[in-house]
Amino acid sequence: MGDLNIFIIAVLVIYVGIAVIDQISIQSGLYSPLFAATFTGFMLGDLQTGLIIGATLQLMTLGVATYGGATVPDYLSGAIMGTAYTIISGNGAEYGIGLAIPIGLLLTQLDVLGRMSNTIVQRKADKEALKGNARGVEIANLLGSIPWMLSRMIPVFVGLAFGETVVVAINSYIPAWFMTGLKAAGQILPAMGMAILLHYLPVKRYWAYLVIGFVVIAYGSSMFSLLAVALLGLALAGIHLSRQGTLVGQTGFGGDDEEIEIDG
């Protein structure tokens, strides 16, 4: 098991800070577990493991958002540390997936602390607003991002800087049955994530496409890769859209009601 290079730690900590800014501003996707785990895998020289862990965690986070200031598990930090621990320990992607979830849940408390710290800056912004100082309000709001960033950057730095010690401690103190449970949970979570994804898709309307995809993967996996199945899905989507265009041309009305349904 090797130590993480200080340069890699610095890059990942900076990435977390930028991702937090992205999460509370433009939301380009840098904060997503998929990007974070993939970038971590790239930095540590194991892109495939990063993709597997990131894609699984991404499925878990579908539909999860911080509405009304609600706090959700910190999958960003969990994805980075889970991927890093997996690669330096060599225990497989299931280990990282199972580890990222409790890390994200544990860091939820720091998110609450970051939000509470932010209220101090926001009071300053309120005072500047009463004075009519727009520049002061702008600066106060920018300063408000610092507690958010530190609530992720500090634990990620500590976790990565003492990664070997942390992993050795985990492996030493956690009983074997618990580690087996973590790996079992890591193997189950992809299926659960897929179930969450299907919940948000109009499966009742387009069940035939689901059956086609299942048959190709379940019975033709020796012939078809995931890329091939994705291209098949793209072709079927193109055929569906073409048929809709034809129906609209013939009747003047849309063929299917495209309102998204959520299966209950």
Describe the structure.
With 264 residues, the protein is mainly α. The chain folds into 2 domains: 195 residues, no CATH class; 47 residues, no CATH class. 75% of the residues lie in helices and 0% in strands. It has 12 helices and no strands. Helix 1 runs antiparallel to helix 2 and helix 4 runs parallel beside helix 8. The protein is flat, with a radius of gyration of 22 Å. This is PTS sucrose transporter subunit IIBC. Pfam families: EII-Sor. Keywords: Cell membrane, Membrane, Phosphotransferase system, Sugar transport, Transmembrane, Transmembrane helix, Transport. InterPro entries: GatZ_KbaZ_carbometab, PTS_IIC_man.
Short description:
With 264 residues, the protein is mainly alpha-helical. The chain has helices at residues 6-23, 33-43, 47-60, 75-89, 93-106, 108-130, 134-143, 145-161, 163-173, 176-199, 207-220, 226-251. Helix 4 (75-89) runs parallel beside helix 8.
What keyword list fits this structure?
flat, 0% strand, mainly alpha, 264 residues
